Amino acid sequence: MSELSFLVLLPLLAAVGAAATPRAAGLWGLPATVLTAALALWLALETLKFGASDVAIGGWIAPLGIVFVADGLAALMLLMTSGVGVAVALQATSWGVWPSSRVSEEAARLRSGFWPLWLATLSAMNALFLSGDLFNIYVAFEILGLTAVGLTALSGTRSALRAAFDYLSAGLAGSLLLLLGVALAYGATGRVDLEAVSMLPDTVTGKIALALLVAGLAVKAALFPLHFWMPTAHSSAAPVASALLSALVVKGALYVILRLSIEGGAGMDSLRFALAVMGACAMLWGAWGALRATRLKLLVAQSTVAQIGLIALAIGVAGDSLHNNGLWQAAALLMLSHALAKAAMFIAVGRIAEELGHDRISGLNQQELRPGAAEFAFAIASVSLIGLPPTAGFIGKWILIDGLIARDAWVWVALILIGTGLSAAYLSRVVSRCLRGGPHIAPGARHPAWRTGDIAALGLATSALVLGLVSALPLALLEVTLI
Asked: Which of 17, 20, 21, 260 is the most exposed place for a label (fewest CB within 10 A)?
């Protein structure tokens, strides 16, 4: 199963090549992204056919060595990352791929900086999803944090640089908490593989170790009330960077939290309840921020706070059983749906702002411009984020609410429904303006010209829609475990 190593090494080596030859960075980035996506698809098919597998890097097994684990959850996250990556890479081709591409000085700068940062991000996320030990997860987070800060600062604006500094500060705080948790877990169990979580003793040390791990991950996931840095960072970055940060980077921390919740351990029940409460608060707070937002990118960034809250709530109420309920699968499906829809939204927002020259919500419905592909992509992605049928967001919420009703957990059901209603309210602020027609549109209004960003946004948004119709496939993949 050396193919697992290729999923990490291929984008990492391409990142080095892109950094060494900045003018030809696209020649490294686009093929490496597509090849990594092909490897992720192959791994998912092999996992469905033959089951989960693991490989010890260098032949060193746990607890001393680094072990890569490829089960259904990891395979789905790898597919999610590479699929969104291909779409974002397609949008990045608007900056030119060939060294001789005639683009502006700013586009050339963005091109040379984006590709190595994105490829390093892809490598770090793949390592994170495949890692079977806590310390390697920490190392992957360190790489991921640095590349995420670089992506935030990519545009070079004052607001982006300030947001990148806040991102770096929050990332360092989260890393410190995470490292302390790993150290305490090692001291209590003598190992750092994920099994150490379930082996933590029911003592003060064991509970503190687990709490530190979850707290560090909550900071990196921007979970309320630790989200202070995230809306500005995502709204200030370049659109392609915002798509990656919101759709993918925060999923790394949520994925590990889900892994820890499944493993269980001392005091995990109380931590799950805390996650659910924080998730519910995030849904309400993020929705309030989105309702008050005056800029389109800020609205989408605030909605990420709310959607992260929904996923955290699903993880919190799921419990640690892989077999007695499907609520943890709902959390994984919601992560996948959010990644596709949110990446589509940020790319669409970039195209809308490009056409209008601004991203003010009050000025979206201009009389001289007809709705274009970007507006329709935003509308389709909104349907998925709200959770309307037949999207993957609807399937995830349906599984979650159905499981909660079976438990008579009506308070959580009510909170999810309130969050859904608020999502419809703040997203309709945009959709109603973007798609308004009739007498509001001037007879001679022009259609926006097609760009690669339109194709990427429509492809991602449509994927979130179609995924709901074929949700049996990701759910079947999630059934494949090592247990």
From this structure: 20
**Four-residue CA torsion sign, 21, 26, 27, 28:** positive
Shortest CA distance to 466 belongs to which of 398, 399, 413, 392? Answer: 392
Distance CA 190, CA 186 (A): 5
Residue 457 has a pLDDT of: 86
**Which tens digits make up the pLDDT trace of 283-301?**
999 999 988 888 888 888 8
Q: In degrees, to the nearest 5, what angle opens at C-alpha 120 toward C-alphas 337 and 91?
A: 55
Q: What are phi and psi of 53, to 5 degrees?
A: -150, 165
Reported pTM: 0.90
Length of the chain: 483
Nearest to 287 by CA among 309, 308, 302: 302
Terminal-residue alpha carbon distance, the chain: 19
- Measured CA to CA, the distance from residue 364 to residue 348 in angstroms comes to 13
pLDDT tens digits for range 41-93:
999 998 888 887 877 776 666 666 678 888 889 999 999 999 999 988 888 77
In this prediction, residue 323 carries a pLDDT of 45
Which two tokens mark 42?
Answer: 């192959």
